[in-house]
Specification:
two-stranded antiparallel sheet; mainly alpha; 41% helix; 235 residues; elongated; 3-stranded antiparallel sheet
């Protein structure tokens, strides 16, 4: 009996010591080491890829955000603020309905099939409400209307796919260079800037494919709008 108790106590003691050592290593030392290395080698990424303007953080380059006008009383969906470059639609986003103490957005996709609302592989002129066809056609009409300026109308053929479709998360921070260039004349007109100056901003913020072959060229909307704000301030 005594031997059994001694063995049990010895095993418990060994288990507790192992638990303590592993807790210190994996719960304290390892996180501190990883955090230290990340902060030393990649301080921007480790800190959330913050974008700063006028001495304050205005967002993260990894998370897309909306550029809308303040909603009016009784108004449904907010209207885009056409002074700024607009990102991709965010039809898949949801709102927090459990913890209502905070107004939170929930990342997500529309979960609509590619042929949602289509008839014989094509979207009808008047698609069923709530389908992907309805969302795409509505977005295409809005993009064409908002970005048409006198002497330079935008046609449906001018509009790239990313201008009318949501990303898988609804929070894509980037748009294609083609979509950014489509918005140049409207942004220039709304901010009283030369078209050439705004086009230069787009060119300067166009990133090439990662390592030259991964992904597609892209433009970060937040960083582009920060540069636009600085250009407007300079006049």
């Amino acid at each position: 009996m005594n031997n059994s108790l001694a063995t049990t106590a010895r095993l418990l003691g060994a288990g507790l010591r192992a638990l303590l050592v592993l807790s210190v290593i994996t719960g304290v030392l390892y996180p501190l080491a990883v955090t230290g290395v990340a902060q030393s080698l990649f301080p921007g990424a480790a800190g959330g890829s913050e974008v700063r303007a006028d001495g304050r953080t205005v967002g993260s380059s990894l998370i897309g955000q909306s550029y809308d006008l303040p909603p009016k009383k009784g108004e449904g969906a907010p209207r885009p603020d056409l002074r700024w470059f607009q990102g991709r639609p965010a039809n898949g986003l949801g709102v927090n309905s459990v913890n209502t103490r905070y107004h939170l957005l929930l990342s997500g996709a529309t979960n609509l099939a590619a042929d949602s609302g289509a008839v014989r592989g094509r979207c009808p002129a008047v698609p069923e409400e709530g389908t992907l066809c309805a969302q795409v056609l509505s977005a295409r009409a809005a993009v064409a209307r908002d970005n048409s300026v006198p002497g330079h109308p935008v046609t449906p053929a001018d509009i790239p796919p990313d201008a009318v479709t949501s990303s898988g998360s609804g929070l894509d921070p980037d748009i294609s260079p083609r979509y950014a260039l489509l918005q140049v004349r409207r942004v220039a007109e709304r901010n009283d800037l030369p078209v050439s100056r705004v086009r230069q901003l787009v060119d300067a913020h166009t990133e090439k494919r990662t390592l030259g072959f991964i992904g597609e060229p892209r433009v970060n909307v937040l960083e582009l709008n920060v540069a636009l704000s600085e250009a407007v301030a300079r006049g």
